[in-house]
Amino acid sequence: METKPVKQQSVLAQMLPHSARQTGQRPSFSMLPYFFILPTLILIGLVVVYPLVEAAFLSLTDASFVNPVPQFVALKNFVNILSSDTFWQVFGNTLVWTVSVVVFQFIVGLLTALLLNQNYRGRALTRALIILPWVTPGVIVALLWRMMYEPQLGIINGVLVRLGVMHQVIPWLAQISTAMPAVVVASIWKGSPFSTVMYLAALQGVSKEILDAAKIDGAAGFNQLRYVIIPTIAPVIRITVLLTTVWTANYFDLIYVMTSGGPLDHTHIFPTYIYELAFARAKTGMAAAYGLTAAAVLLMFSLLYIRELNSRKALD
């Protein structure tokens, strides 16, 4: 006589009430995921949502530290911003600053990564030391470069004068023509190691067989870089460039410590000018309007960054 195999019930089925096992109903856990993410939602609400709502409210008023009862002015702050020459100067400074830093960080980072990807003695030590400028606090980097740019005692003027490149010292941070290039160079020095690490990690994934096949087909040197290496690591390049764009546009401490936005506002970008409006000039409402305007501009780049992550299924 054949015996039918006894079906073993799952642990979840054994835990269900007898009526639920008979009807085949599943227990409802719809609220359980929300319970687990509730602390994160509360934190996001306190850190992101509440300040954003408060800034939106302040941008519609003439709030300031000396005005305890702010008056509602609707969109007057935004109208004044868009019709102000200072806004367009700050916007232009931000654009020049961001594009210059991001482009040169990409170039320097990629070239450095290609060098570090070669076989040579001391490669491990070099790779460890290359990240030091990036992990150094921005205030320390700014003070270091400010001392190097000092007209009389700075090493940059001293070296250039001794080499005969210049006949007299230059106040790099005090004149309009050199202030922005000076802070851009400092930012490139500090930020390039991040791009180097990203591109070096991507280069590790380039197949050696592909490179050997490219050499056989006659692609060597620059052609190999152009037609093989860069297309292979292109996703990492896009993500790194978008990420450094958002970071650079939001940079504050390096510029503020080196120049405080001067001379004559020629190195002010959105974060530094917003700080000056809010805390130096006590124009809280106007500063909030500037902040929302800058956030709207950066939102576009943030959406591009998230879209790139989604296209690579990095958020799955």
Notable features of this structure?
single chain, 316 residues, mainly alpha, MetI-like fold
Can you walk me through this structure?
The chain has a domain at 96-267: MetI-like fold. It is mainly α. It contains 16 helices and no strands.
Task: List the topology elements.
Layout: H1 11-15, H2 18-23, H3 32-59, H4 76-82, H5 85-116, H6 123-129, H7 132-135, H8 138-148, H9 155-162, H10 176-203, H11 208-216, H12 222-232, H13 234-249, H14 253-258, H15 270-280, H16 284-311
Q: Which percent bin holds the helix content?
A: 55-70%
Q: Determine the structural class based on helices, strands and strand pairing.
A: mainly alpha
The helix/strand series, from N terminus to C terminus, equals HHHHHHHHHHHHHHHH
Question: Do you know the CATH architecture of one domain?
Answer: Orthogonal Bundle
Q: Any idea what the shape is?
A: globular
Largest sheet: none
Count of beta strands: 0
CATH superfamily of one domain: MetI-like
Oligomer: single chain
CATH topology of one domain: MetI-like fold
State the helix count.
16
Indicate the radius of gyration in whole angstroms: 28 Å
Mean pLDDT metric: 83
Given this structure, which CATH class of one domain is correct?
Mainly Alpha
Unreliable stretches? 5-13, 15-22
Termini separation = 53 Å
Residue share in β-strands: under 5%
